[in-house]
Specification:
Order of helices and strands: EEHEEEHHEEEEHHHH
Radius of gyration: 18 Å
Low-confidence stretches: 141-146
Strand content: 15-25%
Length: 241
């Protein structure tokens, strides 16, 4: 769908409106998934997660209203400036971890953690966006037959294989983001979708210090534990991370 900045005439404040694509509106599954996003995301109350307000319908097009947040995508910032210095990068990651942990405590996994879904304001406030394909561990989730939900560059091996996922899948995706924050690049840069999938399943990422020699070994170890292929070998919770 598309996101618009709008003025709430009742509250007289800026909000964001996320409109479900009219093409998807023909699909009952798409509408149901959209509603699921609202139900799940509204449960999360944390300063590092975008607040969801309500769901509505305009001329048959579903939309959600949410907190308007002025900032830049983490992806854009890395593209503009390269890798973060250690202190700022760790501050950003702690905020992401705290927001993600709040969701996990409610049994909600994001399933699409990536630098495009993380925003930072000019004064350093960090927000996690788009629980659009999130799935509660406590209720039966919606599935799309023969479809992979997520962004290939950030997907965990178990998500690629369409196996059940839990908090450790988000931790893998966060490991990709951590790698990006401290090296200025993704661990796997491939020519096509299938090559990316192969790398996640079978290849080890290049050592982060190859791209940023100043990284402490302790931080490198943390990143590499997050990126273990087997979920059992990763941190089992964001709190542990």
């Amino acid at each position: 769908g598309s996101v618009f900045k709008a003025l709430d005439l009742e509250l007289e404040e800026d909000i964001a409106l996320k409109m479900l694509s009219p093409q998807l509106n023909l699909s009952a599954k798409a509408v149901q998934r959209f509603k699921q996003e609202i139900k799940l995301a509204r449960q999360i109350n944390h300063p590092s997660v975008i607040r969801i307000y309500d769901i509505g319908d305009q001329s048959g097009i579903k939309f959600i209203s949410m907190e308007y947040f002025h900032g830049k995508q983490l992806k854009e910032m890395i593209s503009d400036q390269g890798f973060f210095n250690l202190e700022i990068g760790i501050d950003v990651l702690l905020d992401i971890c705290n927001g993600l942990s709040a969701a996990h405590k409610l049994g909600i996994i994001h399933r699409d953690i990536k630098s495009q879904n993380l925003m930072i304001s000019d004064d350093g406030v960090v927000k996690i966006l788009d629980f659009g394909i999130a799935k509660s561990l406590d209720i039966p989730g919606l599935t799309v037959e023969s479809a992979i939900l997520g962004t290939p560059e950030y997907m965990s091996p178990e998500a690629i294989r369409q196996k059940p996922v839990d908090a450790r899948s988000d931790i893998y995706s966060l490991g990709i983001v951590m790698y990006e924050i401290f090296t200025g690049r993704l661990p796997f840069i491939c020519e096509n979708f299938l090559s990316v999938i192969h790398c996640h399943l079978h290849e080890e990422p290049p050592p982060p210090r190859q791209f940023n020699p100043t990284l402490p070994e302790e931080l490198v170890e943390v990143i590499m534990i997050c990126l273990e292929k087997n979920p059992e070998d990763r941190y089992h919770s964001v709190a542990e991370l």
